[in-house]
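Database export, one record per block. Field names are fixed; values are copied verbatim from the stored entry.
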Amino acid sequence: MDYTHVLLRYGEIFLKGKNRGTFEKKLVDNIKKIVGIGVNRIRSRIIANYFSEHQKLKNVFGLVSYSPAVRSEKDVEEIKKAALEVLNDQQGSFRVETKRSDKEFPIKSPDLNVIIGKYIEKNSNSKFKFKNPEITLHIEINQAGVYIFTEVIPCFGGLPTGVEGKVILLVENSASLLAGLSFMKRGCDIVPVAFKKQDISLLQKFSPKELQLEIVKDLSEFAAEKHLEVLVVGDNFENKKDYPLDLIFRPLIAFNDEEIEEKIEAFN
């Protein structure tokens, strides 16, 4: 399949009211820094030219999913041809789902579903099936064009890293990395510190900024020097410890070791 574009979706940012524009701008900036591509933003959707390493989009917190797609002009005959091209690479029963955010497009979504469905049945071996089809052909009509796809690839969601405050992350083990990722997913910048050398490559994979691990002897002195008040640690009930700072966050406190390992595996 010769895809032409990638549609990127975000979720929580919709709830940010007057700050939504700031969050969207940060998300676009993070995509550029982490993935290395430029994107276009139109009415709650982000669009990129297709690139083969699109799996890197999963490293951008704030994105909930994306879809490799074929773009068509807003012409019914062109949409028919593009839809058939997308579906011909896949075998099985199908249905069509159209989302028409550009209300100037003259054909309503249910009517376009019927038109495209009949055309595909007539020109291929695929059969329409409304309930539980093997393939759902998505057609999205927005201000930039018509985008046709069958795959919706999930991402981690959350907020773009860097829209909230900055916290210290004490890196001691893989649980610490998961704790750090949890806060990055909530929009926080992290300052990783450790008492001895640690591998923070997993954190860097999801960070739009270059991370430097600080080797420290005294956490309170470091926090005072950097004017930071929050310490994030990977403790759970089995290994809960005390620390010299007042404000300690333990996002993994309720998880056992097996659950922590399962969750960290999802990020690898």
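Remark 1: The radius of gyration is 23 Å.
Remark 2: Residues 166-265 form a domain with the Rossmann fold fold (CATH 3.40.50.620).
End of record.
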